[in-house]
Amino acid sequence: MKFEKLVEDEAFICAQCNFCRVCPAFKHEDWESASPRGRIYLIKSLIRGEIKPEDLDEEIIQDFFKCTTCGECEVVCQTEIPLIDVWEKARASLVKEGFILPAHKRIGEAAKKTGCPYGEDRSRDWWLDFEVSEKAEVAYFAGCTATFRTVEIAKNTVEFLKKAGIDFTYAKNDEICCGSPLLRTGQREIAYEFFKKNYEEWKRRGVKKIVTSCSGCYRTIKRDYPEIAKELGYEWDFEVYHVSQLIHELIKSGELRLEKLNKTVTYHDPCHLGRHMKVYEEPREVLKALGADIVEMENNREEASCCGAGGGVKAQFKELAMKMGIDRISEAEKTGAELIVSCCPFCKLHLNQAAEEKNSKLRVVDLIEIVNQLL
Ligand code: SF4
Ligand code: SF4
């Protein structure tokens, strides 16, 4: 079977050392085929022709996709394989060969039909209760989860931008999914179409800077979009910010006056903001500036444990996603914090469901909700 060159090159570097057994999915599945090392072994066997694609059974394919693309394996990999890219590109090759899981197929079909992986066909600005500029240098990109599942994040972000005196535009119903769930599940072609639509809309509105409140959107627009632009021959000249970075900048320059947060909090690093994009300190600096008492979880920053939801795992493997979410809640409980703060609508959604399932008193609040309320 043919994989992209990057996957072929990197698969043969693997020393099979198994340092990557830190994988949070492997911890619960406990089968070699669901470990990073096992996945690399499968790729190698397919490349060498030792296993034929037609011999792959359902369980092996399922195990291959039991990966949130969290990147914990990449941090510890002894031969420095860019494992996140390897998993995504290997998935794209498998999908091309027709190996797509039912829930991922549903996401792709819903996204093609409605522009949203949740299949929501409501107007995307249903939550917006004031006017925003039609054209501006700054655009807010809300993304699907903040628009349809954790709308308080979108509402607090636009309120914050207004209060901070930033002139911004928001594409409303002309915004379309950034394509993150499609890129992570190997359905690249659909994501490319979404890239074109968002790109053209930003150009039409005179946008130069894109601000998002979602870690998945941030990763996609800041890291994937320039690569897609290059591949498709588009010029890429946008600056991209996660709203936590913008808040940090405004605090540093003395432009924000915030009240104090007298709480003990722990910070959950979203994989897409932390390991994927190396944004670890800005959200913590904002919390420090608010006077919060931050107590770190045992696994933080580069080693932070995944919430369990990403990479299409929540859609296809609900139980596994919940087990990982409960692990993270247990870790947060040990800190004695009153609140978990994060910077991602998807982490908030999933970890709050895990906290409920565990009967934990802890709840996740997004940084933007805190900042907007204290501004
Ligand atoms: S990216 Fe995360 S879930 Fe996927 S194999 Fe690596 S450690 Fe496991
Ligand atoms: S840590 Fe890297 S080199 Fe070692 S088994 Fe895992 S993927 Fe292979």
Structure description:
The protein is an alpha/beta fold. It has 3 domains: 5-99, no CATH class; 104-247, Rossmann fold, CATH 3.40.50.1860; 258-374, 3-Layer(aba) Sandwich (Rossmann fold). The chain is built from 18 helices and 8 strands. The protein has helices at 5-11, 24-29, 36-48, 58-65, 72-76, 83-96, 102-114, 144-148, 151-163, 180-184, 188-204, 215-232, 243-252, 281-289, 313-316, 318-334, 345-357, 367-374, and strands at residues 138-141, 168-170, 209-212, 239-242, 264-267, 293-294, 339-342, 364-366. It has a 4-stranded parallel sheet, with helices on both faces. Strands 6-5-7-8 form a 4-stranded parallel sheet, with helices on both faces. Strand 7, helix 17 and strand 8 form a beta-alpha-beta unit. It is globular. The mean pLDDT is 97. Bound molecules: iron/sulfur cluster (2 copies). The site of one iron/sulfur cluster has 15 residues, from helix 3.
Give the arrangement of secondary structure elements.
Elements: H1 5-11, H2 24-29, H3 36-48, H4 58-65, H5 72-76, H6 83-96, H7 102-114, E1 138-141, H8 144-148, H9 151-163, E2 168-170, H10 180-184, H11 188-204, E3 209-212, H12 215-232, E4 239-242, H13 243-252, E5 264-267, H14 281-289, E6 293-294, H15 313-316, H16 318-334, E7 339-342, H17 345-357, E8 364-366, H18 367-374
Helix pairs in contact: 1-6, 9-18, 13-14, 16-17
Bound molecules: iron/sulfur cluster (2 copies).
